[in-house]
Structure of Enoyl-CoA hydratase/isomerase:
Amino acid sequence: MPESREYPLLAVRRTSDGVLTVTLDDPDRRNAMTAPMTASWERLMREIARDEEIRCVVVTGAGSAFCAGGDLGWIGAEPGAPVEKLRDKMLPFYRIWLSLRDLPVPTIAAVNGPAVGAGACLALACDLRYAVDTATFAVPFTKLGMHPGMAATWLLPEVVGMATARELLYTNRAVSGAEAVALGVFNRVFPAGDFPGEIERIASDVAAGAPIAVKLTKQALIGDGHESFEAALRWEALAQPITMATEDLQEGLAAQRERRVPRFTGA
C-alpha cells in the first residue's frame, strides 16, 4: 500500500506483511504535537485498533527530529487560566497520544533524532525503542518550569527503573547512544545509514509471528507483567491452550517440519 496523506501532519505507510509505519510529519516544527497533529493521531489510533490486518506499528519522525514534544505556544497560551481549566485541556491530550499503549499489536518507536518531553514519552509508550546512535532522549520538564506530563512519572520508571528516572527528571540531561541503551531507554542503536533497513527488518520479524499468539503475549507483558509467579502460570495455562487450538499452530508445526517460513493467518 502506498503512503497515505489522509491524516494531516501524519504520513502513514502500510506494507504487505502487516507493518504500518506512522511518521510524524511536521519537520519545520520538529514534529511537535500541535492540535491538528493530535486530531489526526486520535482518528488514526481508533482506525488502527479496529484493523485486524495490522500486525505491527512503527512510529517515527520526519526530518531531523523524532518529536520535540508538546506545542510550547499552546502550553503557555493561558498563563492566568484556572488549574481546573488547564487540567481539562491536558488530560485529553495525554490520553489521545498514549492510546498507542492500548493497541493490541506490538509497537516500535524508530527514534530518528531528538525525542524530547512528551515526544520522549511517546517513545516510552511503545513496546520497543530503537534509535540512530546520534538520537537524544530528554525529559526536561522542570527546566521549562513545569511538572512532568504525558505519564512521564509512570512510563520512565517502568522502562528504566526509579533511580534512573529520578536522575533524568531532576537533572533534565539528555542521553544518547550507548548510554541510552545501557540505561534501558533504547533497546539498541544503529548508525544512521543502517537505521531504516534495521527498523524494517525488526518490524518484519515482529509481524511474522502468529497474530493471536503475539497479541496474547503483549497482554501478558503489559506494564511490569504479572503480579506474581502464580499469576503468570495461570495466565499461560489459559493463553497457551487458546493458541494450541488455532490453525496457526498447525501451520507453524508444518512449517518447522518442512523447513519453510510459516504463513500465519490469525485463525
In short: The chain has a mean pLDDT of 93. Residues 211-258 form one domain. Residues 35-50 form the longest helix (16 residues).
